[in-house]
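Supplementary Note 3. Input sequence used for the single-chain structure prediction.
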Amino acid sequence: PESVKNQLSIIKSDFEADELMVLTITGDYRTRIKSYELIAQEFAIN
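The predicted structure, written as discrete structure tokens, is reproduced below.
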């Protein structure tokens, strides 16, 4: 999650974006939800 946060922060900065949309491609629903939870935790999103 930390490396994802770093990469997303770089993209946000490079493009001067106010927000980012994230879509994770996984094999199943539970894994996708877990990936979003990890990203949210890293960015301290409730």
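Residues 2-42 form one domain. Helices lie at 2-14, 29-42.
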